[in-house]
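Students often ask what a 'structure token' actually looks like in practice. Rather than answer in the abstract, let us consider histidine kinase, a protein of 238 residues. Its sequence is given first.
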Amino acid sequence: MRRWWPWRSGPRPVAADEPLAALQRQLDLSQALQAERRRIYDDLHDDIGSRLLTLLHRVSEPEQQQLVREVLQDLRAILARERGVEGTLLEVLAQLREEAEQRLDTRDIALDWRQGADLPDPTLDPAQAMHLFRIGREAITNALRHAAPHRLRVVVERVGADLVFEVTDDGAFDAARIGSGRGTRSMQARAGELQGNIHWQAGTLGGTKVCLRFPLPPATTPAVTGWPPASAPESMRP
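Now compare that with the structural description of the same chain:
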């Protein structure tokens, strides 16, 4: 084998198998990280998920039950995103509507959900599904927390190639409060991740209207559907 002496000029010769060895080390590290990530998510499901389900059946107050359901929903969404499970637009909206009905029923608040019959049903990737769901949930949470409404109206419609999602309450509109909290800043960041925009204005019901608009992905037939995934274990379904 030809030797290379450090005092000689020129770069050190590289063995033919050194690049392959470096790639193999990177692959081994990536696989180890993925395995550790899967272990953490399995622990979340087996431990935290089962404890939350037990808590759900033990608490008696409707508001406490709803809070546990929301945490379970968050956990299922995180696991779905980790597994790369896709969902369609209508599936995400149905899940959001179901949760909204449960939350408002416990407070005797009317929900007026208006959804266009011509809505397409494109596949949303896990991140898009989570951003849309979280924005909708936070809009409803803010209305319940700050407006003390008797009625909540949700309008979902297609405008051109965009989806428009609006939440309006009949409480009091406070312009000074808009944008001052962590929740609204998070909604703005999520809208940006959807390549869209979100704004707040005085609503036609007397309270606040939250308006989200973002471009819809092309309508396709998903290879894997269900958000949260239909394959999620029963122990994760409240």
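One point worth highlighting: The chain has five helices and seven strands. Ask yourself how you might have guessed this from the sequence alone, and why that guess would often be unreliable.
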